[in-house]
Amino acid sequence: MITHAVIFAPIGQASRSDQIVQRLSNAIVTGLLEPHEQLPNETDLARMMGVSHITIREALNTLRANALIHTVRGRNGGSFVCENVGNGSSNLHPFKSISTDYLADLGEMHSAIISHSARLASRRMTAADLNRLREFIEILKTADTRELRTQADMRCLLAIAASSQSARLANQELQLQAEWASLVAALYRSDEIHREVIALYLELAEALAAHSEEASVKAAGRIIETFTSYLIEKKMNYNSD
């Protein structure tokens, strides 16, 4: 699943254990990793996230201490997401530890990546690429849970980045989504936002189909700007609750 490819993507260099804890905590608290879902084993996690077994073990110990996961021993054992984590995890919610300035900066960076990807895609996108994007938009349209909507949305964004035919842009988008996905998942509880985003993606698909560079860049920018605006609004409301 593309959601898990993002959640378990390689970690950067600084404070690796803390980054793993933050990423997995966000995914659990926002529902991208569901209750009772089993995490990959330590060996697979270390390989997928590009860190040592010791780092993974330290991060998992922290998640257990925060009652986000529990471990079952034995032949069918492993680490599983705890049930009802929302009841005692408000202090771990991603909106708790980030500022509106941080969200604005994150949105600007994401807009730069997707807007430039759309610029290149308007020139380089093949008919097969366009059909794939439209298929993902249709999946987003019919998705009825925040997890499925988030997953479909990430597929759309990754399809745009991939259609730029720039491996660097596609990789940057994948890495950024490790943080972006858990935030967006909180927005996709809203059917109204869901409908608005679908309309924006359809507008972008039409601009790309027409090979209009200017319209593609504007449409791509509006998608990220819309998300960023809603994220900042949600953060402000979260602080006032």
UniProtKB/TrEMBL annotation:
CDD domains: WHTH_GntR
Record keyword GTP-binding present: no
Database matches in SMART domains: HTH_GNTR (SM00345)
GO molecular function, one term: DNA binding
Keyword entries, A-Z: DNA-binding, Transcription, Transcription regulation
Domain of life where this protein originates: Bacteria
Domain HTH gntR-type, first and last residues per copy: 14-84
InterPro entries associated with the record: GntR_C, TF_FadR/GntR_C, Tscrpt_reg_HTH_GntR, WH-like_DNA-bd_sf, WH_DNA-bd_sf
Protein name as catalogued: FadR family transcriptional regulator
Originating species: Mixta tenebrionis
